[in-house]
Amino acid sequence: MTLKQVFSSTALLMAFALNGCGGSSSGGGSSGAANVYMAGVTSYTSTGNGIATDWKNGTPTNLTTGAEGATAYSIAVESSCDVYVAGDTYDATTANGVATYWKNGTATNLTDGTEYADANAIAVDSSGNIYVAGDTYDATTGYSIATYWKNGTATNLTNGMGNGSAYSITVDSSGNVYMAGVTTTTVGLTENSAATYWKNGTPTNLTDGTEKAVVAQAITVDSSGDVYVAGDTYDATAGRQMAAYWKNGTATNLTDGTEYADANAIAVDSSGNIYVAGNTTSATTGNAIATYWKNGTATNLTDGAENAYANSIAVDSSGNVYVAGMAANASTGYNVATYWKNGAATNLTDGTSPAAVYGMALSSE
Questions:
Q1: Which of 12, 48, 148, 274 has the fewest CB within 10 Å, making it most exposed?
Q2: What is the count of structural domains for the chain?
Q3: Burial class (CB in 10 A: 0-12, 13-18, 19+), 153
């Protein structure tokens, strides 16, 4: 499942951590963090519409009113401690999603609602340039186009001849822009997908496009220029997705296809430890288990009694591991916006209405 598909059933987003409030966005990494910023969605109970929401240390700020649906998928904090959030708002006239970002709560629409568009991820470089990754819609072909915006100006990554989307974005210290997502190929009547990342707009396919349900969900680049991508591969024999990550294009499967799994976020600390967040499946209940892996070793954050998803991950300089996502409330059935620090859960909402955390950033200020 892709990020949007997961949420439509109950969940998800990509990891963004910062090198403190004073460092550039980097799709996952280390920080001597005192503050935890998160982005996601809560629900406006009188309309049922989603409210794009961010949290600082558990305190929520609503970015929209709930008059129309909206969701926040990603968050970044730049050197002056300005807070940037990317997500989707809704154009009631056209019934289309509008790619949107907020700076300190003030919205900027990247598209006009004429056609559907998504803003899935955001990064800010040391010069204050704002990068947003997502997709737009080609009305002529009927396919989505993987797209990114720099300071509001759009660049298409795909040509609209097959579906494409960018789910994650990061900018290194040299100004190189890396994005991860998905492109599609059509074989007969079957649309297959390829996990893909782009460096400055040039694509690299991590898979060969011969299978369905393959996607790159998150990307980060370390100080040596090594590129790490998290996402899903596919076990054709079992017919299931497997959680995986790639380092410089070489894949490591985190699960074996026995049960369905996703890898949704990735972070690499200063010692080179690789952290991946996602979900596995309980063989007993069939429910999703919020899970993270350190160097390939899994830690379950939930027990599978109820569905739960780990959507983003970050690690501070003391080695504390932060994971954000959602877990279903057994009484109401609604997802509770949740984050875990070293495995201990903190609920951000009470389960009386649907909510989720998709993106996270750490700051030392």
A1: 48
A2: 1
A3: exposed
Antiparallel, parallel or unpaired: β 30-31 and 308-316: parallel
**Distance separating alpha carbons of residues 170 and 177, to the nearest angstrom:** 6
Alpha-carbon distances, residue 53 vs 73, 87, 102, 217 (angstroms): 9, 10, 11, 21
Strand order across the beta sheet in which 308-316 lies: 30-31, 308-316, 321-328, 335-341, 344-347
SS3 3: helix
**Contact status, residue 229 vs residue 210, Cβ threshold 8 Å:** no
Q: 319 pairs with which residues across the strands? A: none
Compute the Cα dihedral for 226, 218, 125, 183 and give only its sign: positive
Q: Which of 124, 118, 115 is nearest to 89 (CA)?
A: 118
CATH number (domain holding residue 301) = 2.120.10.30
| Among candidate residues 120, 131, 20, 15, the one with its CA nearest the CA of residue 78 | 20
- Dig out the tokens for 101 from the structure: 């970002």
Structure tokens at 180: 């991860």
Strands 50-56 and 35-43: antiparallel
**Contact call for residues 99 and 136 (beta carbons, < 8 A):** yes
Task: Express each pLDDT in 30-86 by its tens digit.
Answer: 556 679 999 999 997 678 899 999 999 999 999 999 999 999 999 999 988 999 999
Q: What is the extent of the structural domain holding 333?
A: 3-363
Give me the amino acid identity at 26: S
100-129 pLDDT per residue, tens? 999 999 999 999 999 999 999 999 999 999
Residue 70 phi/psi, 5-degree rounding, is: -160, 155
pLDDT (0 to 100) of residue 4:
42
